[in-house]
Amino acid sequence: MNQDTAASATFRPMAATPSGTTSFTAPPGPGEDSSARAAECLAAMARREASALDQLYRLWAAPLLGLAMNILYDRTEAEECLQDAFVRMWRKAGDFDPARGQPFVWAFGILRGLCLDRLRYRTRLKRGGGIAGGTPLSKEPSAAPAVLAADDLARVQQFMARLEPAERECIQLAVLMEYTHTEIAERLGTPLGTVKNRLRRALTKLRTLFHDEI
After folding, report:
1. CA triplet 134, 152, 113: central angle to 5 degrees?
2. Is the whole model's pTM more than 0.85, yes or no?
3. Domain total for the chain?
4. Separation of alpha carbons 109 and 117, rounded Å
5. Domain with 54 in it: what CATH number?
6. Mean pLDDT of 103-127
């Protein structure tokens, strides 16, 4: 088994690394540049420095898991997709080009693709008469949504938490999953007018929160 296969096959989050294999230090603390640190980790992973994978996991696991949960609404499946995403990042680290975008956006693209594969699988099971958790998608998003920088994610989550649950659910479906108003109404079993009103109220609240923050 070569080094690439061994590292990806045996990866476990935050696994111990044999001493002397790398000079990597701890993840950045508050105030340090997490994006630059992530780019360093990806470069080290491209050189097959196995401990860099653990460093990147410590840096990104929490925000990426939250995003996976927002897509799948299932903790177990979100954790499985997160695990698969880090294995894929290890294998494809050499493909990352910092000149083409931020590391976190690149990583989220990988995770999002895996999550959408899970949703498509649920749909196939449903159509084939099998049992699958969650509600199948009525549409597959064609393009990745804009992704905020990792250090802005906590603030956005705080704002979202201040919405009413029904408003938050509509916003997540409209923005993250790119559902139309009609598709949101069908998925939630809610009148179209109610969905539009919820989205209007939610957007007004979020706009006010962001404005006050600035």
Report:
1. 40
2. no
3. 1
4. 12
5. 1.10.1740.10
6. 83
